[in-house]
Amino acid sequence: MKNVQLLKLISGEEVLGTVEVKSDSYTITMPVTIIQDENKMGFIPFMPYAQSESFDISKANVILMVEPTAALKDHYLKSISPIEMPSSEIIV
User: In whole angstroms, what is the distance from residue 31 CA to residue 50 CA?
Assistant: First the structure.
């Protein structure tokens, strides 16, 4: 099971992703920031122009780490899951 966590950074950003705890940092994989308006919620990539999908964030830059709600976690996991494509075979 993936350890999906919500991190509040000292910059004020809230970052959601799969987290691995290390001695002096957190490694967050496939991180997103949450955007929300009156009717919808969505995700945008944390570092959209980076080549890496994982980032080390110093524990000194994290104010709080919490487990997200079940609904938020489920929405996140669905959004990062690869899309299953049907096979190219045609069955007649």
Answer: 11
Beta carbons of 4 and 73 less than 8 angstroms apart: yes
For the whole model, what pTM was predicted?
A: 0.82
The amino acid at 9: L
47-86: pLDDT as tens digits: 999 999 999 999 999 999 999 999 999 999 998 887 666 6
Type of residue found at 19: V
**DSSP labels, the chain:** ---EEEEEETTS-EEEEEEEE-SSEEEEEEEEEEEE-SS-EEEEESSTT-S-SEEEEEGGGEEEEEPPPHHHHHHHHHHHSPPPPPPS----
